[in-house]
Amino acid sequence: MARSQPISGNPNPPLRTRPWMAAFIIFAGACAIVFGIGSSIITGVANISFGTVWSAIVAYDPNNDHHVIVQTLRMPRALAGALVGAAFAVAGALMQGMTRNPIADTGLLGINAGAGLVLVLVFAFIPWLPFEYIILFSFIGSGMGALLVYAIAYFAKGGMTPLRLVLAGAVVGSLISGLTQALSLLFQINYDLAFWSAGGISTAEWFQVSVMLPWIVGGLIAAMLISRSITILSLGEEVASGLGQRTKLIKGIGTVIVMVLAGASVSTVGGVGFIGLIIPHIVRFLVGVDYRWIIPCSAVLGGVLVVFADIGAKLIALPYETPLGSIIAVLGVPFFLFLARKERREL
């Protein structure tokens, strides 16, 4: 990772940024999300026309099977995809900015795995728990996973580095996954675990969307509010401190935001990784290093990625569904290997 040059005496350091490109991405991405949601609603085992979709929205008939499919299955599924895509992408952008780790992602640093372990415990001991409380437990699990990974990397010989963070994430993720598998066998909840491991939004309902919506929207707004501070922090902790930045406070707030975004998403779609790895890199390449643009652009492109990946999940093996996590992993694994090789060359 290239080191930033120290900046002294300038509270507003010059940044490489392309606001015009960011504005175009936000506009074009928003249009793509609308188009993708519409396409997602009409695609699937049952072919449904746009006219039927419009009719189901403005003149819903509970006796019409296609109207029921649109209203109760496909619309909440498509909206859930846009929300969790935005949440995972912004969570990854925040993590990369705070840690200056180019391969930081909620799936690689133990956050998704921690949330999954706690969800399995909930399924085993309190399966009757309402979904709004399951989200709270997911927050706790994501925080525990992240804390364990950072603690191991911090106390390792030589201190915390991007490579050690990833190695700690791999170790912790494997450990937690093993515990999760063992608990699922012990309490016979293999089906729920299989859904979580594969990742997908096929079971998303309006109730789940209504519960996670305020958490994700609130997390995205909070991320925007600290975006300028994340930009300064991404220049390096010493530079940020020299510019008067309260680095520990910003990192604490950013970590809480990541936990909220990842926890709400994992509780709904399961262990989908790599979104927060791929999207922020693409956005930084296109718009520059100012997080005031990176965060909204990441939210939009993250939503686009998941919505269209979910369309692929429905169409690749009709009448069966391909796990959403597998589709995104096909893109994410080569991207991760490329970044890891690049990071190794620059160390």
In brief:
The chain has about 350 residues and is an all-alpha fold. It is about 75% helix and about 0% strand.
Descriptive account of the structure:
The protein has 347 residues and is mainly alpha-helical. 75% of the residues lie in helices and 0% in strands. Helix 1 runs antiparallel to helix 3 (65-99) and helix 3 crosses helix 12 (275-287). The longest helix is centred in the first third of the chain and has 35 residues, at 65-99. Residues 1-13 have low confidence and may be disordered.
Helix-strand blueprint:
Blueprint: H1 19-42, H2 50-58, H3 65-99, H4 111-125, H5 131-155, H6 162-186, H7 190-198, H8 206-225, H9 227-233, H10 237-242, H11 247-269, H12 275-287, H13 291-315, H14 324-346
Helix pairs in contact: 1-3, 1-13, 2-3, 3-8, 3-11, 3-12, 3-13, 4-5, 4-6, 4-11, 5-6, 5-11, 8-11, 9-13, 12-13
Low-confidence stretches: 1-13
Q: How confident is the prediction overall: mean pLDDT?
A: 84
Strand content: under 5%
Taking the sheet with the most strands, its summary is: none
Structural class: mainly alpha
Number of helices: 14
Q: C-alpha Rg, in Å?
A: 20 Å
Helix fraction? over 70%
What is the tally of beta strands? Answer: 0
Assembly state here?
A: single chain
Write the H/E string, N to C.
HHHHHHHHHHHHHH
Global outline: globular
Beginning-to-end CA distance, first to last residue: 7 Å
